[in-house]
Amino acid sequence: MTHYPATITTSTRGGVGAYLLSRAKPHLPPWLAVGGIGLAGGGAHLMWANSAGAGVGLTLSAVALTGATWWAGRETSTQRRLHSAITVAAGSAWMTGAALAGPLTGILPDAYLMGGAVLALSWNVRMLLRTSDGTAPAGNADKSLLEKVGLAKAKIGKTEVEPNRVTASLALEGGEQTNDDVARALVRIASALDLPQSAVRYQPSADSARRGELVIVPKDMLGEPEEWEGPSLPGGSITDPLVIGRYDDGSPLMVWLPGDPDAGRNAQHFLIAGGTGSGKGDTALNLQTEILSRKDVIVWMSDPKSFQDFRPLLPAYDWAVEGGTGTEVMVEALQQVIPARTGWLGRHSYRQWSTAAAVTQTDPAHSCRPDRTACGCEGMPYMVAWMEEAANTLRALGDDAFTGIAQEARSAGVSLVVSLQRPSYDQMSTSTRASLPSVIALGCDPRDEGFSLPEAVIDQGAHPGAWGNRKPGYCYVVAGGIDPDRYANPGRTRQFTTQAVSLMETLAQWAVRNGASADPITAGAARATAGGAYTGRGTADTYEEQTTVPEQDDDQAHGSQLDPEDAAIDPEADLPEADQGDDAPGLFGTDTGRKPNTPAEARKLFAAALDEFEADGVMVVGPKDFMDWCDRNKLSRPWVSARLKEAAEEGRLKPTAQSGRWRIVPALTPA
Q1: pLDDT, tens digit, 9 for 90 and up, residues 473-530
Q2: Looking at the record's lineage, which domain of life comes first (predicted)?
Q3: What total of structural domains would you count in the chain?
Q4: Which of 161, 186, 365, 567 has the fewest Cβ atoms within 10 Å of its own Cβ atom?
Q5: Could you tell me if residue 238 is inside a domain?
């Protein structure tokens, strides 16, 4: 025990000495240089004392050395260049005098002691000042880095160092460099720093074409996935932020759907784009669970994949359809619902949807009555129309299927969400793409980056093509309400595991009991278009009854439902042209028919067919849908085409945006 104090004292002394030596080392070179010049002056005097030729040579050498120093400092700051040249000139002049007259002659000793000390201290002070502002230690490295990437004349300014984030202001050479040069150099900067491409970003100044901020994030903080543990604000409003993940600095990744005049934000549509395996399904679940947990919103959902990812949430949707005709009917219903909702909002003095529109209208300022007394109308919840795997829908309905909806829906309190793998312009019209400026861009093929993100965001360093499908959930989000400086910041959505299924089912039941239901205006316009195909969201019990699948034997469950003679029929083909004898069609249930005797009989026959389609929930029809019906009733294509035209003239059918397709007007709805 008695030896410990001695051991501690020895260690402490050694530590202090080592510390002082380490702190003094950076300041020793100027003093060593002064000592070296003194020794060199004394040695030169022994060789060249009283030599006129040596005097001329030493003088010319001093001038040449000073000039070379000034030339070599052309890439440095003006202050450093001048300081270096003065130091070299003073040292060279003293050495020349010492070599010719002797280092101890006249004022040379005083000049050496005082001048040498001043010059050495000036370099020490310069180093201290450079170190104190936090930018200088890396100054040389910064300059070397910029030279390597072709930005030698750029200057690094104020630098902020945060945990896992370095932000440095950058000023480029006026008239020679622009912010575009930095954008092109980002990948080389990442290479020089041995970092992934997404770790280096550039935020150009809005007020200058040659200034901005270089942001470097050396460590990927999103490497460990975060599991979804439930919605962020159950029972809140759809106007509150929707939290779908986190940024690389740990801050929450949030988006908004409705507009907010106070925040200067308009209502938004969203495009969710990402290649196979990029985490598009989990991203959709993050956003949908946030939406469905709010009290003042309804969701219409189209999913050609038969709700493979979303089945636990089915009870929560106001209307859910698979692809094909069901989606076609939903798109037609949306086109009628939007003007109906816009009219209601206008009559109640809402310039855009707000939370006040979702409750009973007791405020006289939002009354639809001419006398401006409270009208008491039922409120209108916000609405989200979600088109999952939209590429299938666009192929079936045309690349401009959503154009009108996207352009008009926001004023009606409706947000459109379109999810697909590749939002290229051969799949989606330019008008629709322009109406979907808000985007969640996940990993993709590098060639597809321009389809997902604006060019300006890519120039800042956002490159989802660098991830591909190797980092599921990684994304860039460009949307209103988000600081534009964050557009190029990567985030990651939360992961849904098998353990999340029960919680999703609980959320769906909560939405059935506590969430909003479609208002009379929305529901009425939907039923006027879709008839019985639009069911609206019922209670949990009715949903379970509607979705219970009856037991089937193996032959019924797995066997073909087609007659053998019909197996080769292409359901997408047009009806066959009339053959001889087709002008004498049969009536229902007869083998050998006859042509209807009167127009009234013909209309009655065709009306029965439309009633059959409506009863089956098929509300959009075309020639191909009548193939089986014509075969059963011995009717020809020309006869059906004539009846389609008549039904349209009578108002029983309405043309759709897709050529050759007709929407059935529900029988109980005025045409």
Answers
A1: 999 999 999 999 899 999 999 999 999 999 999 999 999 999 999 999 999 999 888 8
A2: Bacteria
A3: 4
A4: 567
A5: no
